[in-house]
Each structure stands twice: as C-alpha cells, then as structure tokens.
Amino acid sequence: MPGDKKHNWYLARAERAFQNGNVLEKVKAIVGPNNMPAIEQSKLAEEALTRMKAGKKPTPKQLAALEFVIRLMRPVPLSQNGALANLDKQVAPSFPDWPTFQTSIKPYLYSIGRIDIAPKEGIGTGFLVSDGILVTNKHVLDILSKGSGELEKGQAVVRFKFESGSTDDETPTDITGVIGVHDELDIALLKVNKQKFTKTRQPLALDTTPVETGLAVVAIGYPFEDTKRNPLFINALFSKKYGVKRAAPGEVSSTGENSIYHDCSTLGGNSGSPILSMKTAQVVGLHRDGYFLYRNEAVDAASLNEFIQPHL
Amino acid sequence: MTEDINPIVTFSRINKAFNKSEAVMSTAHQEAEAKSKDPVEAATRMAALGNALKVLEAADAQAKSKVLVSPDDAVACLLQTFLAQKAVEENKVQPLNPHLKEAKFDDHDVLGWIGSFFTWWKKIKPAKWQTAPPDPETIPGNPSDFRLAVLGDWGTGRYGAPVSAKSIENDPTGYDVLMHLGDVYYSGDDKEVQKQFLDFWPKSPKKPNAVNRACNSNHEMYTGGHAYFKKTLPTFRQKASYFAVQNDHWVLCGLDTAYADKDLAKEQVLWLRRIVAQNQGVRKVILFSHHQPLSWIEEQHPKVVGKLGDIITGGHIFAWYWGHEHRCVLYDQHPQWKLHGRCVGHGGYPYFRKDWAKMGGTPEAGDKNWVMLPAKGFAPGGRVLDGPNPLIGGHDDPIKYGPQGYMSVQFSGKHIFETVHAPDGTKLYDRQLV
Fold it and tell me: I want to staple B61 with a disulfide (CB 3.0 to 4.6 A). Which of A4, A201, B327, B332 is the partner?
C-alpha cells in the first residue's frame, strides 16, 4: 500500500540503489563516461532483482549484473593485522564514514573473535563486553554444547585474531562456561578467561539509543561458506576466503520489536557478530540470522544491554 | 453466506509465524532448494518469498491487520491464499472481530505447511488463452436503450461488496449488462472465485437475459487465471477474457490487461482495431479493463496505451472504465484523446483515504462527497469520491477508509446518463455525459 513511511523508505532505498541514477552515476563515475557496459550492468541488475522478487528466474546476463552490483554496493573487506581494508573507490562514496570507522574500530577489532569447537572447527562469532564476558547467539552455544546449553573448559575456544594473510600466533582463549542465555532473543553470554585490555584493545561498548532506518552499520565477524542459505553470489563477494575476520558495511533497513534489520553481506559464521554504528564504532545490535535477498536480523542494543547488565 | 468465505490472513499472524523462529525461514529455504531444479531457481524463490514478506509488511502499515489487505504482489497473495486454505482445512480459524474471521496459525503450523506451499506455487502456470468472437454480441432487449451496472475490485465478499450487490439486484428497473472490472482476493483461486465472487455476484431478476461480463485482473492471474477462465467465463457465458457487446448506438469492449501483466496479450489490439473501424460513424466505443490508461496516483501503463496507439490518440474511444486503483474517480474529458476516464475500483476492497489537499484537491462546493483535483501529467482534472466508509465500522475506524459502491450507466439512444451509487444504492452523483 503506497503512502506509509516504511514503504516509502524501501522505495527510496531501491531507487537509490537501482533506479534513480545514483548507482548509475557512481558506476559511470568509476568506469568512465565512455564505458557503457557499466550502465548496462546496473539496468540489468535492476531487471534481475525485479524478476527474482516476482518469483521469475533472471537471465544469466541479468544475474551476472546483479552480482556485479551487489559486490559493488555491499562488499566485505578483510581485516588484516588489526586494521580493516579500505573500501573500493567505487563504493567508498556510499559510506563516507568508513575512513573514520577504520580508525575508531581499531581498539575493538581484537575483542571480536571466531568461536570454535576445540580445537579448530569454526562455528560463529563472539565479542567481549567486559574482561570475562563474550556475547554470541544462543544457537551458537547450542552447536558448541551439542544442545545441552552447558560448556566447560576444553569444549570451545575463541580466537580474537584469525585474519586473512597472517599467521594466528595467539593462543586461543578458552570458553569456560555459560553465564546466561536468552532463549527468545537468541543471546548467549559465555564465560572466558580474563582478558588484558589496554588503550589499544578495549571491550566493545553498547549504544542503546534507538537507531534510525538508514543508519550506516558494519557487521564484523567470521563468515563461513553457506551455499544452502545463500545459493548465489558468495564466491564473488568472499573470493573463496571464508572463516577469517571481515567487516561488512550496510544500512539499517528497518526496526522491529527488540530487533533491527540490516543489509550487510553476512553468512552463517556471522552469527554472534556485533552490528556497529559506522559513526561511533559502538554496538547497536547482535546479529542473529539472515535470509537471502530479504533481510538480516539483529537483537537491538537496548534489549541486549538489558540482558547483559545484571551479569556485569 | 459470509460463513463460507475464506478467513482473512493478516500480516501480524504471518510475521509472528515466519519471524518468531529462525527455523521457519530456514525450513523455507531448504524447501525452496529441495523443490528447485537449480540454485538460481532456489535463490529466486527465496528472494520472492522474502520480498513478499516485505511487501505485506508495508501494505499492512496502515491497516494494522484489522481489515483485509492484499498487495499487488503475486507471491504475497499466493501465500495468503495458501495460508487461508490450510487454516480452513485444519480448522484453525478464529474471530478477528464480530464481523470477520482470521486464519489462526503459528510457526509450528507453517513449518509443516511450507513445503506444500512451494510445491503448489511451482505448479502454477497461466491458463489457456481463449479467443473471442470477431464480432460483438448484441445486448438483448430494446436495441436503443439499456442499463449497465459496473463494479470494480469487488471480489472480497465483504464490506461494501455484498451490500452493492443487493442494491443492484433490488434495483426497481434492473440492469441489462452487469460488468466486473476484475480482482478477486487474494489470488482468485477456485474457492475464492466461487465464494467471494460468483456466490455474491448480483442477479438481475428484472432482466433475466442480462449479460454478465468480467475483466481479467492481476489478482486472478496470480493463480494463473484458471478459476477466472474455467469458472467465471463459463458462468457468465463469456467466450474469452476480452469481449464486445453492442446495441444500435454503442459498443462496449472489454480488454484483458492482466494475462500479460499491464499489457495487451495476443490478438486483442487487432481485434479491437477492427471493431473500432467497423463502427466508425455508427457506434461509439467504450472500453473496460482492470488496469488504468491514466491516473493521478498510480503509474500509467505505457504498454497498454502504446499498443492502442491511434485508437486512443485519434479520439476513437468515448469512455474507458477501469478498476485496480481501489477508488472512484471521474476524470474530465481528456483534452487530446477526447475520452472520459472513470476509475470504478471502490467495489469491495478496504482502501485508505488520501490527503487530497496535498495534491491540490479542494472539496466540491455544496457536495461533501467529492474532491475536485487538477490535471496531472497525462491525467486530466476531475473528481474523486471521498469520505468515511461506514461499512468498515466494527473492523476499524471508518474515517480512515474511503467510501465504496458502484456505478450505473443508462444508455438512451445516443445519450448516456451516469450515476455513482453508495453501496445501499443512494445516488452520490449523476449527470448526462452526452
């Protein structure tokens, strides 16, 4: 039904991305005004999206164009040596706060880790909110604990580095127990060994103020190959490098009860990722699940904070 | 009779079922993959399902799950039809208010049903096209005079729809032609067409030989148009989804703008061109369709108007009645095309009132039912029916919803008198058009 605020926002975003020329201009600006195939890509991408939303298979050409546009607009830069890579110059204008974020996130990057079933089977992502509390999803705990909901030392570890292109020489941190679980919101607080925080390594802070639709956000985590729920585009987006720390920029697409919805490119291993405001590098949500070309869901920071506070 | 019609399927219920537990969408994705031939098809079905949920959410923003909502999205409507049927089959229906029942289901139900949804959806293919006779059929009775009743977007079986039907049936003079401009919600499957359309369609007891005609529409085509082609057309003794009926002075031509979405499929243009040519200087031509050739609010459909070309631009069409937009608008005569455009889409769908003042609308002096609007783009100025909808009372605040009803047209020789009626038959507007 045309006319409501949310519908208009979806329309505006779709137009921004595919219709009203902004993408075309960006693409054109990148490849040069004489490079007409770039314009064709965006038009074809729009056609692909329209067809898929209507349940009609796009043509191979349309699909390739959509892959191009998604890779362009929703990239997943790697973290290397404690710093996030620059955005490609083609997408950088869409995220003007990225350079600031690259600096402001640095003290927190090594407080976000890959959660493994010991010794080294990657399952999801977790982040520290204090020197002994790791936040992740309840469904990650379920996998780690094989459904029992309980953990003891030796079952699971968290690796706070594990970056592409560098050796992870840090001893993994033991996960030693379960502090609390929120079944409905899919939150688990895991107990980890005390961490050494310094000026250059800090626990993540939560920003509990309500987020606005359109807020630029970043999901940081360890995406794993997930061809079942994401049958297309993943190799183009992730270059077959999975299970290493990545940061996915995107936008808050809407909000709901205890939830925010975003469009960062995420995969299965992103369960438990912090969703960070690109402006402040503070946590605005806890990523919990996502559905191909639909939306990603996260617990909002206010609900997360309410659950965490008694345990701090 | 309302006891038999499907319950409504609210976004609130869908949202709880699909988004409460990750298992539902995960299972949906597994089912999409299992039921698809290749990854692209699986991805397409997943994208379409996700989009349907978004569209339903946006469409429900104002209604807040208190009335029937049926967006223009095939997968969203198919999902609603499917969930309504499953809920009925498994006796999961409960009152939403004293007048309306809703399908009551949860995430556990959907987990069990979602595989069947993909199987059903995948099987849907368009119904076989049917070819109309080349020449118009003659309207029985007086060759000079007849009366026409027009209903659009009427197939809800609720709100103003059954009330308008009764008024048409009880009209003391009766009607010679009864016309539906399309839309049976959610997706016009067999049961919906039977229970929300054919069972309620007005009889014409005073004119037993009355001609009934129905335009095809996007909502009927969401299920491939099978119920429309195989139930509605035979019931109406209508040979195809495009049609023509005539008397000595007028020829009424219905177009199918839905078999190919917002387009004119197959031979329709050539068929119409022949009829227009044959009637040049003999009869005036009036068109009927589901989709609009012009509008203040919705997009114009360039394929339809473009294919008709000089039939439209040459001033060969006297008037055009359409639905789809869920409101009643009487446009002034088009300055170039010379046609009189009428949107009669206020038959049964609960639609929201617009802030017409923002579009330059001003209440008609002395008649609070109408707002006068200036020309916009291709659309000339005109009047739109406005005001509360008392038939929404008991469901939601009537002030939020626009009025429903129908139109009647009296053809007397070369003259036309048109009337806009409230559902109870009250005249809201009438005038001699020519």
Answer: A4
pLDDT higher than threshold 90 for residue A88: no
- Residues of chain A contacting residue B71, judged by C-beta atoms under 8 Å apart: 1
- Which amino acid, residue A10? Y
Q: Are residues B154 and B100 in the same domain?
A: no
- By CB atoms closer than 10 A (0-12, 13-18, 19+), residue B299 is exposed
Q: What is the DSSP letter of A310?
A: G
* Chain A nearest C-alpha distance from B46 (Å): 7
Q: Which residue, B204, B202, B266, is CA-closest to B240?
A: B266
HSE-CB of A95 using CA atoms within 13 angstroms: 32
**Encoded amino acid at A4, one letter:** D
Burial state string for A181-212 with b = 16 or more CB within 10 A and e = fewer than 16: bbeebbbbbbbbeebeeeeebbbbebbbeebe
User: Which residues numbered 267-326 in B keep a CB inside 8 Å of some CB on A?
Assistant: 297
- Separation CA A273–CA A248 (nearest Å): 10
- The phi and psi torsions of A125 (rounded to 5 degrees) equal -125, 150
Instruction: Give B407-421 pLDDT, tens digit per residue.
Output: 999 999 999 999 999
Identify residue B296 by its one-letter amino acid code.
Answer: W
- Helix B22-34 vs helix B39-63: angle between axes, to the nearest 10 degrees? 140
**Predicted local distance difference test score (pLDDT) of residue B2:** 46
How many CA atoms lie less than 13 Å away from B65 in the CB half-sphere?
17
Beta strand A173-182 pairing with A156-159? antiparallel
Domains of chain A: total: 3
Query: For residues B241 and B271, what is the distance between their CA atoms, to the nearest angstrom?
Result: 13
Residues in chain B where the model's pLDDT stays below 70: 1-3, 21-22
CATH assignment at residue B152? 3.60.21.10
Extract the tokens encoding A302: 């206010």
Whole-angstrom Cα distance, residue A46 to residue B230? 36
Range of the domain at A157: 108-192
Number of H helices, E strands in chain B: 13, 18
Of B29, B41, B44, the CB nearest to A228: B29
Selection from A69-83, A138-152, B225-239 with the highest mean pLDDT: B225-239
- Can you tell me the distance from the alpha carbon of B358 to that of B288, in angstroms, rounded to the nearest whole number? 30
Last residue of a domain, one of B72, B97, B123: B123
What is the number of residues in chain B? 434
Q: Name residues 331-390 of chain B within 8 A of A (Cβ).
A: 352, 354
Strand partners, A135: A127, A189
B191: containing domain: 137-432
The bridge status of strand B243-246 relative to strand B137-138 is: parallel
